[in-house]
Structures are given as C-alpha cells and as structure tokens.
Amino acid sequence: xxxxxxxxxxRVVTIDRPARRNALRPADLDALEAAVTDADASVVYLHxxxxxxxxxxxxxxxARLDDPAAFARHGQxxxxxxxxxxxxxxxxxxxxxxGGGVELALACDLRxxxxxxxxxxxxxxxxxxxxxGGTVRLSRVLRDGDAMDFALSGRVVDxxxxxxxxxxxxxxxxxxxxxxxxxxxxxxxxxxxxARMRDDRPREEQEAAEAAAFDxxxxxxxxxxxxxxx
Length: 230
Hints:
- By secondary structure, the chain is of the alpha/beta class.
- It folds into 2 domains: 2-183, 2-enoyl-CoA Hydratase, Chain A, domain 1 (Alpha-Beta Complex); 199-229.
- It has 10 helices and 10 strands.
- Strands 1-2-3-5-7-10 form a 6-stranded mixed sheet, sandwiched between helices.
- Helix 3 (68-84) runs parallel beside helix 4 (100-107), helix 5 (134-141) packs antiparallel against helix 6 and helix 9 runs antiparallel to helix 10.
- It is globular and about 65 Å long.
- The N and C termini lie far apart (50 Å).
C-alpha cells in the first residue's frame, strides 16, 4: 500500500506494508510510480512505515513469477520514473533497505539516513541480484571498488559506512527535515538544478542548456524584484 500526504510544496509518500517490511508487489510499484510522478509538489519525500524503509520485491511474488524479465522491467520503469520526475525526490531511510529498496533509493535525488538505517543487496546469497537498475546506478553513485564490494558481498552496511562510501549524503535523526529544507527553496530553481545534474548529453550541450536555464531564472528573478519595488 502506498499513502500520500501533501503539505504545500512537499509531498510525503509512504510505503505502508510494515508487516512485510514494506516489500513491493506489482500493484505497489504502479502506485508508487503514480504517487511520485503525479505530484505537483517541488519535493517528494519517500520513506517506509514501521521499522524498515523497503525490503525490495516481495519474494512470495518473485517465487511465483511467470515472466521474471517483465517484473524486472517493471521495477526498472518505476525507478526511471522516480529519477526523471520533475520533483526532487528525497529518500528517507530509517531501518532496513534491502534489494529493490536500495535500488529505489538509488533512483532518488537525495538519500538521507537515520543512525538506525542499514543497506544490503542480499540477493546474491540465494542466487538472485538487484534487477531494478541497481547494477547500473550503483556504479554511478559509488566508486567502482565500493560498488563491486556492496553488490558482490551481500553484506549489510550501516548508516555511517553508507555515508562514507557515498550511498547516503547525510545521517540525521529525522530525514524528513532535510526534505522540508529543500522544499523551502524556489521550485523553479530546484527543477532546473535537478534537470541539469541529470543531463547526460555531451558537455557542450549541457553547458548550453545550463546557460539557457540560467537566463530564464534570472529573467524571472529580475521580474520578481521589480514587482517587489512597485
């Protein structure tokens, strides 16, 4: 079950299956995608109910899959939708993030942990691996050696180590406060910064887009200043 709460420029999205450590079924993936992509808020805060962020795919569902590749593509599409969302998406990880839960967090723009957060890709221990884009994003977020170690060992990484290797940017008592601080900034600027930092085109094209975006924002800023003086 996915719940949403809107408060001004912040949408809170809660993965709410605490009895299953917030493990996701296909319908949950669809609801999660809609909750993020339909948001009018400039910032989306994604977290889990209970004592886990997300255990990833519901393994009872995985064991009965008729088309595992389609299920993998389903999770990939949701992760891509989170990454491409016009909103800044902040993952607040409190408790366990496992498998697909780590992969969804990797698709977010910011990952913030509590001291109780832990991370692992345990699939290798029983013959699986993270197929919701994890093998792609891990090597983008972490250094190559750290990414390989995390993916191949299946070991549990605590919050402080996650910060040291770059898996999260901060360790705080309440990650939602980070999302609230980001949401206090100007929505247009947030959208531009996200778009620019997600741009993977050749450098010259990126710089041209950056200059054009700066031009638009300066024009809007100047108009606001002029209006305030009237």
